[in-house]
Amino acid sequence: MLKLNFLLVLRQIKKDKKSFLINILGASVGLTTIVLMSLYIFYEKNYDSFNENNDKLYRVERVVNDNMQNQIFDSTPYELSKEIRASFPEIEHSASAKYTSNFLAIGDKLYPREKGILAENSFLKMFSFQFISGDRFKALKNPMSIVVSESLGKKLFPNGDILGKTIKINKKHILNITGVFKDYPKNSHFNMEYIISFNSLKELYESEMEKGWGESYVSTYVLLNKNAEVNSLSNKLKNLLTKHNDFKDGITQTLSLRLVEDIYLKASYVRNDSMGGRRNTMIFIYLFMLVVFFTAFITIVNYINMTTTKLINRELEIGMKKVLGISKRQLQFQFILESLVKVISVIIISSVLVVVLLPVFNSVVSRELSFVFTGSWLFVLKIIFFSVFIGIVAGLYPVFYLSSLKITSFLQGNTSIKRRRGLRKGLVFFQLFVTIPLIVLSYYIVSQINYLKEKDLGFNKKNVLSTWVKVSDDQDLSSVKVVKNKLLKNPNVLSFSISECAPFLGFGDKKKVNWEGNKTDNKASLSTYGVDYDFIDVFKMEMKEGRWFSKDYSTDKQSSCVINETAASLLGWENPIGKTLDNGKIKVIGVVKDFDQVSLTLKIPPMMLTMNSDDKKYFVIGVKVNENNKSETRSFINKTFNSHFPEKPIEFGFLEDGMDAAYMSLLENVMRMFMLVSIISILLVIVGLYTLISFSLRMQKKMIAMHKILGATKRELFRLILKEYVIIYVLAATLGLILTYFLILQFSQIGPYNVSINPIAFMIVVLITFFIVLFTVSGKIWSASSENPIKAITLE
């Protein structure tokens, strides 16, 4: 019996190969898209999931409110970890950690700069790094200890035997390798290849670990015990900083807890990002989940409709089988078998497509997606279940309706399918309703990315080389000035600047100052750092009013400042030049045009620029170079600097390659992926529309024939039928645009800079969509209106 039914299925497939292939390929493309998108969503939603104690692992964050703005930082005082570990029994472990980046050397061989962190020994008790060698719980106990990743270990020691070897940091300090850990999953907020014991900080960086409660420079992590109540602990921690600091000028600082697994998707607005990892936002994930839902729905609807449409062509066959005595159960079994054959075909084709396209998809989204990272076969089983579900749903209609109809219904051509025209119109409407948001959102996302790429940053990022230089003493500062004079003799070096910070190279300090004309008790919080006379020549800022610092004015060095437009607006000054800050101690000599200081994800802060102070240990070096011979000029600058700082490796990089690269990379990945999936979904919609319209027109053949018999021309019939689909399109487009508007409002909350909604561009997109629909349906409608009416009535 099974063999006979299987042969009947194969015969039916052979009889209608074209329809079978279109149906299977359409479903396979849809399923492949769903699988790839689901892999991406799964990857993004499972950041830091490799930790065994995820539900009890938190990062402590610092909320700063100064009456004018509310900001969240992931940096806290070093002393915090020790105190909360000793004072709160709910906390099982706590650890301080700090991001670092160093040149590593084995013997005389210097390797490129590698990213790492400094962490307390308890850090490894909290996070589930799997050790290949060494004692995980004691590896960071002693000063000058380092644990390295497996890949870094193989890079530094290709011949193995890593444990017990030594690594030189920055050509100067020797660390002992006390452990090797397996490469952790890349979907983590950490971005490092090694961990150095935190008690090495003083020797490595000439910096004291205990800097007091007033300075926040580390990230603090806590692991709660199994009985801890998070809300209760948060309330206890909230005002802890107030006990150790006398905050003034209306500033308040409180503490809060954030699950480590929430850092990646729910902390894009948190300042510092001290672990150097990627950031994303749940808004993107929701958008992609929406696209997956639409794609899944379209795939299922297309599959069901094409299957059902072809079964209508077999009404006579089904009726004759019933006349010959084939039972309802036998018909149901045959339909189920046909559906399963199609489902298996879809799964096989989709599996091949996923394997072939996954490397390409990974390059598009800049991820390392695979079925391995899911950690189990559960994800794969879900995909298989979904595929089988499509087949079952597609088979339900013919199984429970066509096989149940009476013989007289078939012979009279009165099937239940023909009575469901409203359902078919509804499906046409929904597919059009889905298409509009997909196309408009794709246009908006592309416009947003291009806007951010071309946004006026307030400075010129082109051909600027930059780096941080550690200045330990006056001799180092003199060496920097000697290097400056040497470099400026090179015709390819246009200008050279030494500053405490620079655009996208540091936050600067926050300073609370009073201002001339202030009639309140509040003080303004300004982002402040020192610059030199050449700073504006390197970064090409534009002066809005007044002047830049000049050697011709002796007071500029001690008591003058330049503010930005945002600061002038905050202080309420219409004519800022000559006004004073800090109780008359600092005079405003100029207003510089607003320039992005930290990130495109954050608003430009109110800023005050002063002349450099010589007591800083770190400076940003900015060098403007000629467009020609940039690589050679960069090599020359690196070589010149390193000849004067032999024990402090220095490497310059182009500012435009590093500034906010992670954020722009994320946006570009989102743009590429959204457009790719949208194009596939739109193609599926076109196929689905063609199928649905073919089905609907088949149901209207008798109506079309009667109109022709009564004298209607082909043109009149064409307009009559097209009018019905135009009405559906207008309704779908209207509701689709409303949905798109609300989606764009959500999308616009991701960052402070957003492209304005262009109604004309949206209308162009709607018109393009309309012509796509018109092109899809016109040929089929014209063909239907051209058929011989006698033939149509006879067939009916």
What this model shows, in words?
This protein has 796 residues and is of the alpha+beta class. It folds into three domains: 1-45 and 282-419, no CATH class; 54-266, no CATH class; 464-661, no CATH class. Helix content is 49%, strand content 18%. The chain is built from 26 helices and 22 strands. Helix 10 (282-312) packs parallel to helix 22 (661-699), helix 12 packs antiparallel against helix 13 (378-400) and helix 16 packs antiparallel against helix 20. The longest helix is centred in the C-terminal third of the chain and has 39 residues, at 661-699. The protein is globular, with a radius of gyration of 34 Å.
Features:
796 residues; alpha+beta; 7-stranded mixed beta sheet; 6-stranded mixed barrel
Tally of DSSP helical segments: 26
Instruction: Catalogue the unreliable spans.
Output: none
Largest sheet: 7 strands, mixed
* Count of spatially separate domains: 3
Tell me the strand percentage band. Answer: 15-25%
Q: Give the beta-strand count.
A: 22
- Structural category is alpha+beta
| N→C terminal distance | 34 Å
Overall pLDDT confidence = 80
Approximate shape: globular
